[in-house]
Amino acid sequence: MRAGIHLWNYTNPGGAAATADLVAGVATAAEAGGFAQLTVMDHWFQMEAAGDPREPMLEAFTTLAFLAAHSSTLRLGPLVVGVTYRHPGLLAKIVTSLDVLSKGRAMLGIGAAWYEREHLALGVPYPAISERFERLEEAIRIVHQMWSDDEGAFEGEHYRLAETINSPAAVTEGHPPLLIGGKGEKKTLRIAAQYAQIVNLTASEPDDVAHLLDVLRGHCDRLGTDYDAIEKQVMATRLRPDDPSYWPTMERLAALGVDLVVFGAAPNDQVGSVERYAAQVLPRLAEL
Known about the structure:
Elements: E1 2-7, H1 19-33, E2 37-40, H2 60-69, E3 75-78, E4 81-82, H3 88-101, E5 108-111, H4 116-122, H5 129-146, E6 154-155, E7 160-161, E8 178-181, H6 188-195, E9 198-201, H7 206-223, E10 231-235, H8 246-255, E11 260-264, H9 270-280, H10 282-286
Parallel strand pairs: 1-2, 1-11, 2-3, 4-5, 5-8, 8-9, 9-10, 10-11
Antiparallel strand pairs: 6-7
């Protein structure tokens, strides 16, 4: 299995003045350590379940562009964009620009959004969940159209674009991969089966992962899409390498066909935690 590192917290002893060096250091340590992927959180406030909303949080795509300039092999993307945060046409342009400037290393992780507080705080509309999923599917269709040769109009229920010009085009062959994150069985995994090249399951317990992958396979079978062509990722940010169940868990995940495991950079020790994962976990993970 391969590994990814997720940068979800920018709290550090040096404060804002040290943040640029910290972010660059994470990219350097991740690339030197053999990580395949580096993702950042796409929120305006820190998640309440993870910390105080007033903790520092950088805008995702500004950060990803900075990371692109401080790396050369890492796949880069948000984990994940909330569909309500940016107009889909603008989002396609942003991701394409990241792909061009990173020489083909961008991906787009996207979901239906959930953090109501930050929407209300900054005055961004927050429709009901049913509408957010409708917008998610339309946004994916818009992005795919802008990554194609079709420069025509798009007429949807929620979005209307007169032209879908997108120049320069992405340099990734085909287009940057689309990642769908979550574990909703009826909508999220169905959308993943229909559109995604990568699925990121917000689960790490092998029995849960096995069930979710069975659900994904079922959706693929019904839609006529290729289950085996979808890269499978799991979030392992809550797992600890010193736990006796850690390596048995990893072995079971590998047996289930998981391709990549995402670890989290620790607050106040982001670079050090990346280096420890690289030294203590990645060599054995690569053998599974």
